[in-house]
Design a protein that fits this description.
6-stranded mixed sheet, single chain, Beta Polymerase, domain 2, alpha+beta, Methane Monooxygenase Hydroxylase, Chain G, domain 1, 6 strands, 10 helices, rod-shaped
């Protein structure tokens, strides 16, 4: 269980990673933490929230996990929970896995606490909140870049890669999770802002503005992704209809040819019988009679098709 402790002039910051229930119970007893809040620390699926119990504030945040799987698309898979207890005497941050930005913050505050004697727990809380919100910036920008690539793949411009709808689905799901987590984070920030020191209010307002900005990008990407998915489905349907229309045109042409040759084949099959006593078998003009009969039948069929309008040039143009 990695643990880091920073001692400031008026308070201490304790950062604990992957604690056991026994460790959490000891912390609750030592710092007089409320049991229900400690129970929330053990629930990995808990969403962002804020509550104030006596003089101890309890904040649950969810930060983007840069080590998540490529196919991750749920809150639990894409984000990691950070629970924070704070009062005038302490800041306790609890998380199951090491967070790179938490390690960087600890290093930053190790140096800063020496030169800044007027620090308060809210200064630390502001930094943690800010880093949690900023953790979504990189994946959101990555999704924005994916949108441009998907457009090129759908329209086959500047790339030979084909768009796969499952890739678009994962981007849409990820952005949707980011948007909901950012909106859920706004409530704790606003509630902390109400009781914040006047000098720190601009910092919390800046965090709130960053949340709005990231939420706007996430919503815009989600709308664009929905449009691209609908466009892809429409284009696929259009291509399928085009292929079906071409197949129908081929079958139409073959059917017309068969209509002409079927009666001709029937006549040829009759005169191809090997019976001895056939009426025209010894007629010197029998061959020409048969050809004339075939030509007449073909002409009648042609005239009938023209009368029905099945051979008009306009119909052929419409089917092309």
């Amino acid at each position: 269980m990695p643990e880091s402790r920073l001692q400031f002039q008026s308070f201490e910051w304790l950062d604990v990673a992957n604690p056991t229930s026994e460790v959490l119970n000891k912390l609750a007893e030592q710092y007089q933490l409320h049991p229900t809040s400690v129970q929330d620390c053990l629930q990995p699926e808990h969403l962002p929230k804020f509550e104030m119990i006596e003089d101890v504030g309890f904040v649950v945040l969810r930060a983007y996990d840069p080590d998540c799987a490529k196919e991750a698309d749920s809150v639990q898979e894409l984000t990691r929970k950070i629970a924070i207890f704070y009062s005038e005497r302490f800041v306790i941050s609890i998380h199951r896995q090491d967070q790179p930005f938490m390690t960087a913050l600890l290093e930053k505050w190790k140096k800063r606490k020496i030169n800044d004697p007027v620090l308060t727990p809210e200064h630390v809380l502001i930094d943690i909140l800010n880093e949690v919100v900023l953790s979504y910036q990189s994946p959101i920008m990555s999704c924005l870049g994916a949108i441009e690539l998907f457009e090129a793949e759908i329209f086959h411009t500047s790339t030979q890669r084909k768009f796969r709808i499952n890739k678009g689905y994962y981007v849409k799901r990820k952005v949707s999770v980011f948007k909901h987590m950012l909106r859920a984070t706004r409530e704790p920030v606003n509630r902390i802002l109400v009781n914040a020191e006047a000098i720190l209010v601009p910092h919390f307002q800046n965090i709130s503005e960053q949340i709005d900005q990231q939420s706007y990008y996430a919503s815009d990407i989600e709308d664009s992704m929905n449009s691209l998915l609908n466009l892809h489905v429409s284009l696929q349907g259009q291509r399928t209809n085009e292929a079906s229309r071409r197949t129908n045109e081929v079958m139409r042409v073959l059917t017309i040819f068969s209509c002409f040759f079927l009666p001709i084949n029937f006549i040829a099959s009759i005169y191809g019988m090997n019976f001895e006593h056939m009426p025209e078998i010894k007629d010197p003009f029998g061959y020409w009679y048969a050809l004339a009969f075939m030509a007449t039948v073909s002409l009648v069929i042609f005239m009938w098709f023209r009368r029905k309008g099945w051979l008009k040039k306009a119909d052929l143009r419409d089917s092309e």
